[in-house]
Amino acid sequence: MNDRYMEALEQYEPEAVSVRRGRGAWICETETGWRILKEYRGTVKRLEFENQVLNTILLEPGLQVDHYICNRDGNLLSIAGDGTRYVMKEWYPDRECDLKNPEEVCLAASRLALLHKGLRTVEVREEWNLGSILTEPLNKELKRHNRELLRARNYIRGKRGRTGFELCVIASYPEFYEQARRAAELMEELMAGDQAGAVPLYLCHGDLDQHHLLMGKNHTAVVDFNRMHLGIQMSDLYRFMRKAMEKHGWDVKLGRSVLEAYRSALPVTEEEQKVLYGLFLYPEKYWKQINFYYNTNKAWIPARSTEKILALQEQQEARNHFLKAVFGS
Question: Pfam families annotated for this entry (predicted)?
């Protein structure tokens, strides 16, 4: 084992019984429970913010989060001899949420709702520097993405001798861009003008997917809050739910069940439902492929990129049916 990790480990109690590599860190078994030691590159201010939130959040039965562990000196950061900084957190040796299991997906959605409910109990503090924990508003983000789509489309239009990927983009662009335009308009209506503030901002996990939901026998542990921010909580639900829907071919029955599982633990307002619909309506994966193409070397386009565009086209009918059946639009 690298000596610098040992130097950090030695600053904590109790002593580790066993240590193994995992999730880009060191997972440690101690006499009092599991821990994970990670290199830390963020600011002290950010670390203190996460620690305060995780220690303040009111957790309901069945839900756990990975609290930070202070070292022997009572500090959140431990520094090795070469200056590398580390943090230690509680850990849960459970498996990640299985997106192939519909029942587990629904259970995870209900536990996500409990997390959101708990995050709403945390009082936002001025010393957190709100500017650092606010993300780009969704309406502005989607408008920016649409400008990027238009820029890429115009570039391809002006080309001669288009590649197979570029021909696929030109053929598929009208339908996907129309959805992108409608989603951006809906988000603008919800978040600007008279509707501003209709969708309240709360603390969000910020990077919620199956990898951050560890399913224990009697609990679900939500981990890795390094992208936690003040925003719209529906973005967490969308991120997790979209991955499940893609895995299940946009199955309407499962989509309704996941939403019901979430609502059973935390009611969803009409405005929040519209935000969720807008996020699902926006062709995020299509935008990602186009944006990646535009910002990389166009002399060689991986065949995989063309396959992904074609796959998105093939999924459109099922995706459109899901949007209509689940959201009525």
Answer: APH
How many C-beta atoms surround the C-beta of residue 126 within 10 A?
Answer: 6
pTM attached to this predicted model: 0.93
Please state the φ and ψ torsions of residue 123, each to the nearest 5 degrees.
Answer: -80, 125
Contact 17, 4 (CB under 8 A): no
Any idea how long the chain is?
Answer: 329
Q: What residue ranges in the chain does DSSP mark as E strands?
A: 16-22, 25-30, 33-39, 63-65, 68-69, 78-79, 85-90, 95-96, 202-204, 213-215, 220-222, 229-231
- For residue 224, the one-letter residue type is D
pLDDT, tens digit only, all 329 positions of the chain:
456 788 999 999 988 888 988 888 999 999 889 999 999 999 999 999 999 999 999 999 999 999 999 999 999 999 998 899 999 999 999 999 999 999 999 999 999 999 999 999 998 887 777 667 888 999 999 999 999 999 999 999 998 888 999 999 999 999 999 999 999 999 999 987 556 567 899 999 999 999 999 999 999 999 999 999 999 999 999 999 999 999 999 999 999 999 999 999 999 999 999 999 999 999 999 999 999 999 987 777 888 899 999 999 999 999 999 999 999 87
Written as six digits, the tokens of 266 are 């935390």
Tell me the two tokens of residue 285.
């994966």
- The tokens describing 129, both together, are 């520097």
Please check whether residue 179 is in contact with residue 282, taking contact to mean a CB–CB distance below 8 angstroms.
yes
Burial code (b: 16+ CB inside 10 Å, e: under 16) for 32-45 equals eebbbbbebeeeee
Please report the DSSP string for 159-224 in residue order: -SS--HHHHHHHHHHHHHHHHHHHHHHHHHHHHSGGGTTSS--EEE-SS-SGGGEEE-SS-EEE--
